[in-house]
Amino acid sequence: MPGDRPDAPLPPQAALSDDPYGENAIGTALMLLDKGRCVARSGWNGMFLFRVAGGWICDTRHTELDHLPTDAFIAMRTAQGTIIPWLASQADLLADDWVEVIP
Question: Are the beta carbons of 16 and 27 closer than 8 angstroms?
Answer without folding.
Answer: no
